[in-house]
Amino acid sequence: MSISVAIAGFGKMGKIRAKTILDNKDTELVAIYEQNDEYICNDNLASLSVESFEDLLAANPDAIFICAFNHVAADYTIRALQKGIHVFCEKPPAKNTTELMQVLAAEESAKTVLKYGFNHRLHYSVSEAKKIIDSGRMGKLLWLRGVYGKAGSIDYQDNWRNFKNYSGGGILMDQGIHMLDLYNYLSGLNFEVVSATLQNSFWPVGVEDNAFVLLQSDSVMASMHSSATQWKHKFLLEMCFENGFVNLDGILSDSRSYAPETLVVAKREFEDVTFAMGKPAENVTWFENDDSWKLELAEFVAAVKGEEKIGHGTSEDAYKVLDLVERIYAKSGFYD
Questions:
Q1: What is the 3-state secondary structure (H, E, C) of 137-149?
Q2: What is the pLDDT of residues 225-270, one digit of tens each?
Q3: Would the pTM of this model clear 0.85, i.e. be above it?
Q4: CATH superfamily assigned to domain 3-112
Q5: What fold characterizes domain 120-293+321-332?
């Protein structure tokens, strides 16, 4: 069974999703809605262009990928669900949890699939780390520490992601949300916000370009720095356990500017007459391929066919991380 798919929004993410849809034997791209016609420069795809989201719905696809501005994500999702169309929506799921609650109500009454795009969960390094953690051999989790930073871009101040009425927030909403989702996924914990300091330190925009966050769940502490002034791109998630540590150092992307992607695992060693304390032997695994986009689509297709349920990027996952982001904003007082 071939699944007909439409795309709302054909910027960077829309193009990435289109490629995976075109490459998948079970999906057929049938319509694209993009406000800026210049974004659809592929002659073969230009013929699929429609003039409005209403036209996209009228094409009656089996599924819609929502890759549009954050401020329309919830509305588009609700309207598609109400028409009985399966939905794959990029993160963030909405500008705030109030909007997302309306989506959840629509999902409850719909008989369709809803999945959110948190592709970091399906990077091979993350999948392997999850297996190690779930095996229990590292013991109890003690703390997490993460840094996710980028350098912005030459036109960063003009990017829609930095206009709060379109995005709902700055670098925390755009990139930090991925790191927070990994905290939720890998730890299985619920975090309270101990402190949060957001600042606009460099970019002439009305949203935060740095977020420093401290979280706590029972006895587990977690800190995160999400930055748009990390002049050398950086992804690092360190997790310390009773018996050692598991680190995700680097992550593959189209630009490969966060590469290499490695998983570093080591067992705790105490000082003795032979070995120096604090220098345990590390097992480093390197990853050369990022199939996360394909794996996300495959899971979505399988759910649409009724072969399995959504395991990554459920509406519950989306609500949990958006609620955490919202509480961080509230704690910081940055937008008060």
A1: CCCCEEEEEEEEE
A2: 999 999 999 999 999 999 999 999 999 998 899 999 999 999 988 7
A3: yes
A4: NAD(P)-binding Rossmann-like Domain (3.40.50.720)
A5: Dihydrodipicolinate Reductase; domain 2 (3.30.360)
